[in-house]
């Protein structure tokens, strides 16, 4: 492997600026690594070499002309395959969109292209981003680069594993209930779900619109901060986009956190944690103490309802969002239907996988007349309660910490036939989506089998900069991120 591929995005863009390497060379090296490694890992649904090389050429032209380079210009990146890039297949890892070629760019895609960030390919995911292990892809599974028999986490498994394996330096994922933070934790990298509305959802295939948020994956906090800056911003094409100026997040990474208050979520301190994860959490608490922070135990009593609330609201929204895949407008259509009704039903029966069908049925039930008040309305009320509990907690502390997941990456197949066990994997991450607050997973050590552990940090809405600041301080105190998967 070209050694430069292991470096950070900042180091890579400096090397391009200083003409130690051209953007085209770096892009080709990354494509080569993907071509030689990805059969083992399964991170990519498709490659977009032409777009990537075209962008890289633009970067090299700018360097030759002595022009200033935009942030992250030339740094190899992967898009989760539920984000649109003109002329590329956008499948959401579903049979129903297997041959769908996107006619438009998502807003985040356009921003990346404007910044001359080469997009190398579309990363594998759980079908329509529903899952926690990437085993729900209709095409292939993703393997964890730290141990190929383990899952990478989901649903953004390909985005996380490709960065951990140095196939690319950066990637984007989407997080509806933990799909960025969980795979970041399982793969030993940084993954961040920004404040809801910070990053435009235009051009992201919708799962549960009130919870979905796009965010960065990187091998260190600074790179994640820079990528967040590139993709953030108000977008009139997304009605829930926040009209608040974008910050230069990297500028505040090293702010002193002495005297600040770190809340430890009581409900996530012990229950179900493996011994090694529990030790890593204790170590993180000690680290923040050593940095001069005050540790406060915070109780969030409604947290125990978060999975229940999520699986009503997310399924309700998905049953509505996925109604558009009917064989008429997009993607797959059954070849042998006798009438219109049969065309609809057969198309959906043949096009969707089992987990997606389960969610559509659950959501349709929760929204049906007679049950709506008991399920959907109740869940909305409970969501407000969760949001209020976080707001109260943040009156007392600057940030909250917990493990990203009670356990490290599990064996492939271990939870595949038990949806409830799989749903419980997200116990620590889901509530941030319900409350719309930013959350992040940063490497926090390894378990006895050498599998990465993640620390989750949560901050109040729009305090993404503060969140990154606390993550950076923790990262720099430990340097867990410097150890790369040996693959
Ligand atoms: N694992 C959760 C689910 O299956 C969250 C997925 C996500 O964040 N996209 O719904």
Word description of this protein:
The protein is globular and about 65 Å long. It has a domain of 277 residues: Amidase signature (AS) enzymes, CATH 3.90.1300. It has an 11-stranded mixed beta sheet, sandwiched between helices. Strand 2, helix 4 and strand 3 form a beta-alpha-beta unit. The longest helix has 24 residues. By secondary structure, it is of the alpha/beta class. It has 15 helices and 11 strands. The structure holds glutamine.
Q: Order of strands across the widest beta sheet?
A: 1-3-2-4-6-5-10-11-9-7-8
State the end-to-end CA separation: 10 Å
The H/E string reads HHEHEHEHEHEEHEHEHHHHEHHEEH
Name the hetero compounds present.
glutamine
Largest β-sheet summary:
11 strands, mixed
For the record, the CATH architecture of the domain at 2-258 and 440-446 and 470-482 stands as: Alpha-Beta Complex
Uncertain runs with pLDDT below 50, 5 residues or more?
A: none
The number of helical segments is: 15
Supply Rg.
21 Å
Structural class: alpha/beta
Oligomer: single chain
Share of residues in helices: 25-40%
Label the overall shape.
globular
> Can you give the mean pLDDT?
97
């Amino acid at each position: 492997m070209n050694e430069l591929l292991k470096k950070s995005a900042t180091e890579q863009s400096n090397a391009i600026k200083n003409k130690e390497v051209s953007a085209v060379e770096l892009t080709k090296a990354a494509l080569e690594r993907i071509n030689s490694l990805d059969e083992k890992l399964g991170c990519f649904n498709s490659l977009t070499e032409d777009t990537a090389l075209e962008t890289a050429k633009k970067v090299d032209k700018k360097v030759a002309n002595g022009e200033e380079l935009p942030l992250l210009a030339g740094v190899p990146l992967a898009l989760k395959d539920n984000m649109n890039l003109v002329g590329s297949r956008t499948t959401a890892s579903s049979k129903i969109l297997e041959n769908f070629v996107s006619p438009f760019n998502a807003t985040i895609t356009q921003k990346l292209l404007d910044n001359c960030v080469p997009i190398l390919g579309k990363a594998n995911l759980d079908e329509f981003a529903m899952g926690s292990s990437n085993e729900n892809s209709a095409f292939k599974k993703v393997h964890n680069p730290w141990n190929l028999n383990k899952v990478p986490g989901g649903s953004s498994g390909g985005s996380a594993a490709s960065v951990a394996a140095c196939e690319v330096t950066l990637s984007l994922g989407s997080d509806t209930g933990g799909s960025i933070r969980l795979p970041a934790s399982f793969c030993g990298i940084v993954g961040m779900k920004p404040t809801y509305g910070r990053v435009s959802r235009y051009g992201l295939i919708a799962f549960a619109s009130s919870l979905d948020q796009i965010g960065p994956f990187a091998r260190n906090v600074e790179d994640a901060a820079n990528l967040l800056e590139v993709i953030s911003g108000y977008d009139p094409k997304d009605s829930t986009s926040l009209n608040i100026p974008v910050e230069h997040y990297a500028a505040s990474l090293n702010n002193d956190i002495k005297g600040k208050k770190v809340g430890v979520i009581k409900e996530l301190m012990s229950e179900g944690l493996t011994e090694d994860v529990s030790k890593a959490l204790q170590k993180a608490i000690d680290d923040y103490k050593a940095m001069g922070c005050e540790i406060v135990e915070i109780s969030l009593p409604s947290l125990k309802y978060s999975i229940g609330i999520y699986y009503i609201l997310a399924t309700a929204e998905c049953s509505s969002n996925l109604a558009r895949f009917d064989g008429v407008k997009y993607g797959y259509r059954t070849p042998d239907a006798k009438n219109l009704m049969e065309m609809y039903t057969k198309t959906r029966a043949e096009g969707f996988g089992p987990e997606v069908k389960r969610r559509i049925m659950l959501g349709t039930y929760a929204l049906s007349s007679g049950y709506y008040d008991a399920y959907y309305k109740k869940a909305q009320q409970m969501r407000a309660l969760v949001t209020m509990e976080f707001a109260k907690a943040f009156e007392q502390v600057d940030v909250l910490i917990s493990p990203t997941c009670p356990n490290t990456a599990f064996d492939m197949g271990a939870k595949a036939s038990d949806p409830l066990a799989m749903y419980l994997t997200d116990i620590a991450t889901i509530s941030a989506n319900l409350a719309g607050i930013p959350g992040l997973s940063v490497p926090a050590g390894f378990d006895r089998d050498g599998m990465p552990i993640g620390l989750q940090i949560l901050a109040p809405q729009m305090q993404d900069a503060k969140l990154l600041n606390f993550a950076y301080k923790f990262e720099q105190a430990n340097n867990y991120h410097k150890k790369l998967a040996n693959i």
